[in-house]
């Protein structure tokens, strides 16, 4: 029996299936999602908006559209509001219809790095399902809440066909900064003439929608930047894994 066991172990070692140190099968190595924290297309700015959909979506969308700009909206499912509320679904449709990119910020804005494999899957697929139902798309990009992730999060995202998007400039609206400070920080950054910019903003603040973004968009436009979606600022990647027809609401469309 000992010779037979030793022979099996030798065979496993020969094919690299047994770890010599632990004498145990090696764990399966999962593919990890790509992480993007800056744009690659020169002279582009990808304005991003987290934590919606919410009541200021149309105002932000209109400011961008009136200036020939596009933005990217990272949506939760059940954070500041329920994505299935009728007025909120209308806002998602409006933003998407204006040509802005919609992407995932996961269902309830949990810290994904504290969750299990199955829990991260659940946080992601609920938003994917909602966006597919409401506008017919499955996103190819997600932003982890708080920018918090680990290899488990990256592995789930890869399995779900999505890349992670972070940022290289935080406007600070979620930190309670006065809008004048947000605008000043943007002005200082623009005056440094960076080649690209990937800023973090939040859709859920009235001052961001009505004070900061109009001024910032005007400054970026005057500085000669192209304000594009995240997918475009990364060299024209596909923003969606699939694009189809939206669904018809029923009793299962709820938070």
Automatic annotation (TrEMBL):
It holds the Pfam family Polysacc_deac_1. Its cofactor is Co(2+). It comes from the Eukaryota. Keywords: Carbohydrate metabolism, Cell membrane, Cell wall biogenesis/degradation, Glycoprotein, GPI-anchor, Hydrolase, Lipoprotein, Membrane, Metal-binding, Signal. Residues 1-23 form the signal peptide. Residues 43-228 form the NodB homology domain. It is a lipid-anchor; GPI-anchor. GO terms for molecular function: hydrolase activity, acting on carbon-nitrogen (but not peptide) bonds; metal ion binding. One of its GO terms (cellular component) is side of membrane. CDD domains: CE4_ClCDA_like. It is found in: Cell membrane. InterPro entries: Glyco_hydro/deAcase_b/a-brl, NODB_dom. SUPFAM superfamilies: Glycoside hydrolase/deacetylase (SSF88713). GO terms for biological process: carbohydrate metabolic process; cell wall organization. This is NodB homology domain-containing protein. It comes from Marasmius oreades.
